[in-house]
Amino acid sequence: MPIVSYPSSPLIPTLTLLLCLPVLFYFIAPSFLPPRRLTITAPDEFDDLSLFHKAISLSSSTSTSVKSHLPSTKSRLGSTSTFRPKIAFLFLTNSDLYFIPLWEKFFNQTRPSLYNIYVHADPSVKITPPTGVFADKFIPSKRTQRSSPTLISAARRLLATALLDDPSNAYFTLVSQNCIPLHSFNYLYKFLFDLHKLSKNLEYLSYIEILSDSPTLWDRYNARGENVMTPEVSFDQFRVGSQFFTLSRRHALKVIEDRRLWNKFKMPCINVESCYPEEHYFPTLLSMTDLEGCSQYTLTRVNWTDSVDGHPHTYNPPEVSPELIHRLRRSNSSYSYMFARKFSPGCLKPLMEIADSVIFKD
């Protein structure tokens, strides 16, 4: 019996292709589509505002002037006590804290009564629980993502937590897991609380980079759309700077009290290539509210000479040497850099080898 073949319907391959398209898109799309930027959700905003209100309420009764930081205050019993202001170290990370051994050596040079540690770790990333002075220092955290306002939120969350946790926190130093100290703790402490470095208002200066002449300033200003930032922030008021800073308590309060500028900077970006909200918000806010109280320089050295995709130069083990440390300390201002980034995890061993003889020998 002859075999009869029937022409297949053209609908079958078409339907098969249509059914396969979603599967193909699921596996292939992530390779050529830009990642979706995180936005600030209403629940996250509510949580932060609740935290901020608590910190502001507590701090409203705490004087932030230099007089409250001076020694020899009389207690109710008539004895003289010495007030020692503290430095709050705020670690912002989305990976393991590779340089904990180096930081522990840094902190072990002094008494715990002179510092506090707070860690904001992206909860979507599995991070090895630290021990030693970093144990139990993690604060309630939210997800973070580059080119999104979530990095601003994380920094504000750290500031508010530190303000609420200890009224003695007088300075707030934001660093990342890729940062290292360049001097001893005592050197940093004496520098920050040197009364000769007071502003005209007899307040401690904040050390934050504030730049108005960046060649990409216009693109960054319009990252959310042309003139979207007005009227709250005109182009002439817009500033950029380093993500990492050391703020006085007064300025830390200004940051968490702000609502007006935050409503603009929390908006999602259209041009992701020019969107670095954490490098824009803090310099712009403090420039507009108290420029004279800011040094306009950061204490964290970053090498941008061969940056890749917006990331600074990353130092690798062969580059670590005493000469590198001395070079990283030098700045164009009248004071030395206190921290540096960005170091790869493999740099820990060579850094530990020169910690006592170079890094912490001032």
Quickly give the structural class: alpha/beta
Distance between the termini: 100 Å
Shape: globular
- Rg, Cα atoms, Å: 25 Å
Mean pLDDT: 87
Helix content: 25-40%
Q: Return residue spans where pLDDT drops below 50 for at least 5 consecutive residues.
A: 23-34, 64-81
- Proportion of strand residues: 5-15%
What order do the strands of the largest sheet run in, or round the barrel if closed?
4-3-5-7
> Main sheet, how many strands, which sense, barrel?
4 strands, mixed
* Count of beta strands: 9
The string of secondary-structure elements, in order, is: HHEEEHEHEEHHEHHHEHEHH
Given the structure, what is the number of helices? Answer: 12
Keywords: Glycoprotein, Glycosyltransferase, Membrane, Transferase, Transmembrane, Transmembrane helix
GO molecular function: glycosyltransferase activity
Membrane topology: Single-pass type II membrane protein
Subcellular location: Membrane
Describe the secondary-structure layout:
Layout: H1 11-32, H2 42-59, E1 73-74, E2 80-81, E3 86-93, H3 100-107, E4 115-121, H4 150-165, E5 169-176, E6 180-181, H5 185-192, H6 217-221, E7 246-248, H7 249-257, H8 262-265, H9 277-290, E8 300-302, H10 322-329, E9 339-341, H11 348-353, H12 355-359
Parallel strand pairs: 3-4, 3-5, 8-9
Antiparallel strand pairs: 1-2, 5-7, 6-9
What does this structure look like?
- Pfam families: Branch.
- By secondary structure, the protein is of the alpha/beta class.
- It contains 12 helices and 9 strands.
- It has helices spanning 11-32, 42-59, 100-107, 150-165, 185-192, 217-221, 249-257, 262-265, 277-290, 322-329, 348-353, 355-359; strands at residues 73-74, 80-81, 86-93, 115-121, 169-176, 180-181, 246-248, 300-302, 339-341.
- Strands 4-3-5-7 form a 4-stranded mixed beta sheet. A 3-stranded mixed beta sheet has the order 6-9-8. A two-stranded antiparallel sheet has the order 1-2.
- It is globular, with a radius of gyration of 25 Å.
